[in-house]
Amino acid sequence: MATTPTAEPKSNRIGLSVIDYKGGKTTLCAGCGHNAISERIIEAMYDMGVQPERVAKLSGIGCSSKSPAYFMNRSHSFNSVHGRMPSVATGAMLANRNLIALGVSGDGDTASIGIGQFVHLMRRNLPMIYIIEDNGVYGLTKGQFSATADLGSKLKSGVINDLPPIDTCGLAIELGATFVGRSFSGDKRQLSTMLKAAIAHHGTVMLDVVSPCVTFNDHEGSTKSYKYVKDHEETLQEMSFVPHFEEIDVEYDPGTTVNVTMHDGSSLRLRKLEEDYDPTNRIAAMTRLSQAHEHGEVLTGVFYVNTKAPSFLDMLNMVDQPLATLPESVTRPGKAALEAAMEELR
Amino acid sequence: MATTDIAPQGTGGQLGRKRIVNDMSIQVATVNGSGSQSSNTVLLRAIFQMGVPISGKNLFPSNIAGLPTWYTIRANKDGYIGRKKEIDFLVAMNAETAQDDVMSLAAGASVLYDEPLGLDKLRNDLIFYSVPYDKLVAAVCPEAKLRKLVKNMVYVGVVAQLLEIEMGEVEKAIRKQFAAKVKAANLNLAAAQAGFDYAKASLQKRGAFYIERMNKTAGKIIIDGNSAAALGCMFAGCTVVTWYPITPSSSLVETMIDYMKDYRIGPDGKATFAIVQAEDELAAIGMVIGAGWAGARSMTATAGPGISLMAEFAGLAYYAEIPGVIWDIQRVGPSTGLPTRTSQGDILCTAFLSHGDTKHIMLIPNSAAECFSMASDAFNLAEQFQTLVFVMSDLDLGMNNWMSDPFEYPTTPIKRGKVLDKADLEKLGGFARYRDLDGDGVGYRTLPGTEHPAAAYFTRGSGHNDKSNYSERPDDYENNMERLNRKFETARSFVPRPEILKGEKAKIGIIAYGTSHWGIIESRDQLRNEYAIETDYLRLRAYPFTREVHDFIEQHERVYVVEQNRDAQMLTLLKLDLKPELTTRLRSISHLDGLPLDARSVTDELSTMEGK
Q1: What is the pLDDT of residue B12?
Q2: Residue A241 pLDDT class (50, 70, 90 cuts)
Q3: pLDDT at position B243, please?
Q4: Can you state the angle between helices A168-175 and A115-124, rounded to 10 degrees?
Q5: Is domain B3-210 in CATH 3.40.920.10, yes or no?
Q6: Is B316–A51 a contact, with Cβ atoms under 8 angstroms apart?
Q7: Which of residues 409-448 of B touch A (CB under 8 A)?
């Protein structure tokens, strides 16, 4: 036993250190935006004091979908099939409503092969955090355009994209997701704050995080490069987050700041950088996104929040205990039930 | 004795002398959406209530209203309830098909028709009865708009009178059919009575067919296979159902929704289940797999086109080793094939569904009772072997009415398989997800949400080692594949064993499965009585094949594999499993017209192949 006292490792509100939220070593390219997002997820989960065992990580196929292996090893994870993580997440949440589902997808996995499941996930408002690590190209198959690539964006080979992009945020808002925002893997503070608010939200959180692909889409002419995003980013709000377990000690000016009280009692503070932007107004949100497209802006911020809509799990009116672990005494009706059913058929 | 008293039918004029009792098939030809289903059910039930074994088969178009539909009731004192090829008594209600329907009858059959159709001019070797439906129905149903629906009940009364079905039983069946709707019941009863009275006063019975009270249905129920499956799944402790509507499987889940609402809502008014209509079959199977991964007893129901769409996920579930139950109510397909006709055409594609080396457990029910009992088997096997289990029903079983003994309450407890919980992990310290500790090929799993730092593992496809870490090492891949094979081999001794009906000296064997059973048992009697051909019979109930299947083939010189598909799919699967020298013993009899297998087709083909 050492006799000299060593400093206690720093821990969060449930007594875990940040190491308890770490994952395996990344195999993505050095400088990949996805690694930064993994770091922000670790931070947000640690800061919020989320029990890692309650988290279910889910992904489809692609560089983004590999990343759950690089954070939170103490959480179960399911690397499923291309474009169909939403259905797996839905099934998992039906089985165990107490899980915190964290889905990581990419722009190819979501906006092309997965667009069908994506839109239906959004309209169900299933409680889960759905992150698109959006770089506008297919990385694992070496650099083909995805459906979020902007008109006129150029591949390394010189090929120009001549189809309009799908705005996943606009779709999500239109279809019923209740927390929708866009961020940038290079914006630590904004992404971290958004992720914490996402954890506090009960409903579908859809975060489109622009995350440059350093190997295939970070060159001149690309609209998803670090440089392009830094030059064209327009930020809707300056945001801060006060978790429910911390005392609120900073007053805010209701004239300049929107305060959103999240489901768990946390507060998301959005200091308006644009006059009169109201993140609870769906139509305004969609209009503002359309304007951003017209002006070639990379608009970031929380576009839409709705803390009132019932989630899919609320609508199913299930028992509180997870369906997965209900005992036979509850899931197999008694002999009298079978007898009654038989009598009706005689 | 079973068949000898069915004398060959003579012409109409001679039939008065014969009396054929409790052995006939009645076909009702109507228009889809005309309310004929209630009338047909009443007629079926009235005969059933008189103690006569019955079956009811609906031959319907892919259409909501307006196209022709036929309902065939078979009553048979010996309990043959498979489809009978010949129609003995036609109720022709559909002007559009009446001529064809009449022309296709064998001489001596009876025809009941709507007077204005004038069908009696068509042939002189049939017995015709004409009924002025519109006049009769107008007298009992003042409301003109209801007449179309009530009209069909008139023929029930006419048929009852002609065949000597007791009107008391008709009334009982009507009361049951309309349950709480007393006004509707009374109206329909009046219509049936009007038909009965008319027949008594105006028609002279000339046909040979009669229904007489007997005692072979006491205590039995009438149910379709899909409803039986729904009940079975509920009693199997299913908690998550995800589905996409497709004929002929939709009614399985729709019935299950009703049963679950009746029996699986807790005292607090909350559901012990979740049933979700997915956006397509890709999502339905994805949800089944997500729920199975997280520990629920999850299932879906589909048909061939859905099976095709589920292929990729099925392969993932095979490799990631996730339980789930899939009901395939087989039909003819794909696309605008014949979605309302029956088939056993999904056997081969389901056995190996997905890419790479995959193989799946299939259970094959032949009856409503097995739809019920195999539901529990399917969920237990799925969780025991951490894999998908496919239950291969078909349209004939799923959507038609079958007589059955009441279902037996499941005696096997719900088995959740090898799942480690928090307490287990505290003892063990950790685990390797895909390590074969018990030699049966089945590893131990944990569920997401298990509160232990060592509970988590990373689920992915085939590229992993036994700790579930990503690996591209050749030995890891090969070891994993061998273990999966070991698991499948273990399953051989746990799946339902075949049913074998065997004498002492038959050299010929028959292998069949699913609904073909009902044609086979009747055909075996025909072969014995008409051709002196003795056969033994093995009914497959599962894939992988058990030891008994090999033994049966080994014991017979020739084995006819009867199935309802073109390409001898089950025979092909058997060939893969058998010693090479045994494969030459197999002969294929295939039936593929979209109609349920009938005994006569099998008898004709087998006797011909035997040189008789």
Answers
A1: 43
A2: very high
A3: 98
A4: 40
A5: yes
A6: no
A7: 409-410, 413-414, 446-448
Per CB-CB distance under 8 Å, the chain B contacts of A54 are 449
Asked whether residue A3 carries a pLDDT value surpassing 70, the answer given is no
- If one counts the domains in chain A, the total is 1
Interface touch B450/A73, C-beta < 8 Å: no
pTM over 0.90: yes
Return d(Cα B284, Cα A236) in angstroms, integer.
38
Q: Per-residue pLDDT averaged across A285-305, rounded?
A: 95
Please report the ipTM that was assigned to this predicted complex.
Answer: 0.96
Mutate to test the interface with B, among A50, A78, A100, A119 (most CBs of B within 10 A): A78
Confidence class for position A4, pLDDT limits 50, 70, 90: low
d(CA A99, nearest CA chain B) in Å: 6
Q: Is the pLDDT of residue A106 over 60?
A: yes
Q: Which residues of A touch B285 (CB under 8 A)?
A: 87
Confidence (pLDDT) at A216: 95
Weakly modelled stretches of chain B, pLDDT under 50: 1-16
Assign B542 to helix, strand or coil: strand
CATH of B499-609, one of 3.30.540.10, 1.10.1040.10, 3.40.50.920, 1.20.140.10: 3.40.50.920
The CA-atom distances, in angstroms, between B608 and each of B177, B605, B611 are: 45, 5, 5
454-513 of B, contacting A, C-beta below 8 A: 455-461, 470
| Lowest mean pLDDT segment, chosen from A244-248, A296-300, B456-460 | A244-248
Contact B461 A331 (CB under 8 A): no
Question: Does B236 contact chain A (CB < 8 Å)?
Answer: yes
Query: Is the CB of A319 inside 8 Å of chain B's CB atoms?
Result: yes
**Within a 10 A sphere around the Cβ of B147, how many other Cβ atoms?**
16
CA–CA separation, A154 and B575 (whole Å): 56
CATH code, domain with A290: 3.40.50.970
Q: Do domains B223-404 and B499-609 have the same CATH topology?
A: yes
Residue with tokens 């031959």: B59
pLDDT band at A145 (very low <50, low <70, confident <90, very high): very high
Question: In terms of C-beta density within 10 A (0-12 exposed, 13-18 middle, 19 or more buried), how is residue A184 classed?
Answer: buried
A32 touches chain B (CB under 8 A): no
**Tokens representing residue B499 in the block:** 């049913």
* Residue B279 near chain A (CB below 8 Å): yes
CB B261 within 8 Å of CB B232: no
